[in-house]
Automatic annotation (TrEMBL):
<comment type="function">
    <text>Binds to 23S rRNA.</text>
</comment>
<dbReference type="GO" id="GO:0005840">
    <property type="term" value="C:ribosome"/>
</dbReference>
<dbReference type="Pfam" id="PF00276">
    <property type="entry name" value="Ribosomal_L23"/>
</dbReference>
<dbReference type="GO" id="GO:0009507">
    <property type="term" value="C:chloroplast"/>
</dbReference>
<dbReference type="InterPro" id="IPR012677">
    <property type="entry name" value="Nucleotide-bd_a/b_plait_sf"/>
</dbReference>
<comment type="subunit">
    <text>Part of the 50S ribosomal subunit.</text>
</comment>
<keyword id="KW-0150">Chloroplast</keyword>
<dbReference type="InterPro" id="IPR013025">
    <property type="entry name" value="Ribosomal_uL23-like"/>
</dbReference>
<keyword id="KW-0689">Ribosomal protein</keyword>
<dbReference type="InterPro" id="IPR012678">
    <property type="entry name" value="Ribosomal_uL23/eL15/eS24_sf"/>
</dbReference>
<dbReference type="GO" id="GO:0003735">
    <property type="term" value="F:structural constituent of ribosome"/>
</dbReference>
<comment type="similarity">
    <text>Belongs to the universal ribosomal protein uL23 family.</text>
</comment>
<keyword id="KW-0687">Ribonucleoprotein</keyword>
<keyword id="KW-0694">RNA-binding</keyword>
<dbReference type="InterPro" id="IPR001014">
    <property type="entry name" value="Ribosomal_uL23_CS"/>
</dbReference>
<protein>
    <submittedName>
        <fullName>Ribosomal protein L23</fullName>
    </submittedName>
</protein>
<keyword id="KW-0934">Plastid</keyword>
Length: 96
């Protein structure tokens, strides 16, 4: 999982979890096929769609840098990434 940096938890990404879509930041040099292969191999799920966009980098005096891009990964119905679901349900139970 060298290309995937970390999962993203924003209002939009939490709303997308209901549609079986997971959001994560990945290395800017990774291709869609590499990310798809890593997700399917590591989590044992089937990916049906992937959307990506580059985030604006931090401004520097001499140019600006982009270190990562954001991927929204859509899984087939019936599949899920267990650690994200378990953590989310634990937090919801603790709040009530």
């Amino acid at each position: 999982m060298d290309g995937i940096k970390y999962a993203v938890f924003t209002e939009k990404s939490i709303r997308l979890l209901g549609n079986n879509q997971y959001t994560s930041n990945v290395e800017s040099g990774s291709t869609r096929t590499e990310i798809k292969h890593w997700v399917e191999l590591f989590f044992g799920v089937k990916v049906i769609a992937m959307n990506s966009h580059r985030l604006p980098g931090k401004g520097r005096r001499m140019g600006h840098t982009m270190h990562y891009r954001r991927m929204i990964i859509t899984l087939q119905p019936g599949y899920s990434i267990p650690p994200l679901i378990e953590k989310r349900t634990k937090n919801l139970k603790q709040k009530t």
